[in-house]
């Protein structure tokens, strides 16, 4: 099974796409160049078969095989306990933003048992590993920007104790998603938040980049930016 998957990856490799992706993901040296639609197609096929064998035998050092692990967990029909174990095994392996973000979006099962999965994600917020914290934040912005969780999310953003770049960018992205869905609450938050200056300003930048935000709102938000020397 694993050899057939590797052969399909080799056959699907695109050198130009490989060069493009490597320019976007710092330090990436193990990519073959398989595009995401093909990886998702393969992941769905794996998820419908002996996915456990694949997760056990996949090569963690290969970008595509690691990506497949992440999205197979999202597609496979597992019980909650099996999903938890699979994520606990996978999350520490995440080593770039693309693996993180493309995997997180597939975890729609988190929306079915929100109390359990929100608590599961919260554990990673105190991690010392950059991509473990990002995993929690991106999963939250993908699946928990709801009336039930908005207040808790905004409070979490105020208490992130990490200046790692990909954590800060995930937090800013999450704030922007919150603003689009809950503009009044998020606007009030931005006027008094305790996020570091970089994350605060990036949050405003990302909100202002959204086509869902009016010009009047964008002008108002610009006034809330902080001087970078205030970091």
UniProtKB/TrEMBL annotation:
<protein>
    <recommendedName>
        <fullName>DNA alkylation repair protein</fullName>
    </recommendedName>
</protein>
<dbReference type="Pfam" id="PF08713">
    <property type="entry name" value="DNA_alkylation"/>
</dbReference>
<dbReference type="InterPro" id="IPR014825">
    <property type="entry name" value="DNA_alkylation"/>
</dbReference>
<dbReference type="InterPro" id="IPR016024">
    <property type="entry name" value="ARM-type_fold"/>
</dbReference>
């Amino acid at each position: 099974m694993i050899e057939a998957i590797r052969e399909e990856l080799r056959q699907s490799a695109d050198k130009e796409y490989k060069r493009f992706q490597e320019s976007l993901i710092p330090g990436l040296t193990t990519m073959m160049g398989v595009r995401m639609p093909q990886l998702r197609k393969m992941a769905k096929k794996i998820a419908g078969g002996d996915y456990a064998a694949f997760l056990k035998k996949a090569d963690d050092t290969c970008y595509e095989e690691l990506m497949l692990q992440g999205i197979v967990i999202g597609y496979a029909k597992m019980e909650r306990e099996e999903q938890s174990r699979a994520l606990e095994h996978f999350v520490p392996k995440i080593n770039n933003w693309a693996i993180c973000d493309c995997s997180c979006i597939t975890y729609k099962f988190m929306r079915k048992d929100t109390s359990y999965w929100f608590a599961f994600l919260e554990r990673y917020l105190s991690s010392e590993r950059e991509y473990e914290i990002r995993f929690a934040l991106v999963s939250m912005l993908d699946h928990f920007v709801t009336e039930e969780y908005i207040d808790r999310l905004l409070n979490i953003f105020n208490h992130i104790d990490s200046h790692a770049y990909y954590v800060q960018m995930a937090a800013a992205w999450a704030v922007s998603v919150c603003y689009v869905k809950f503009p009044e609450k998020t606007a009030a938050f931005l006027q008094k938040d305790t996020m570091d200056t970089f994350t605060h300003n990036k949050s405003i930048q990302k909100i202002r980049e959204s086509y869902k935000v009016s010009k009047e709102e964008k002008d108002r938000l610009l006034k809330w930016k902080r001087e970078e020397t205030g970091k």
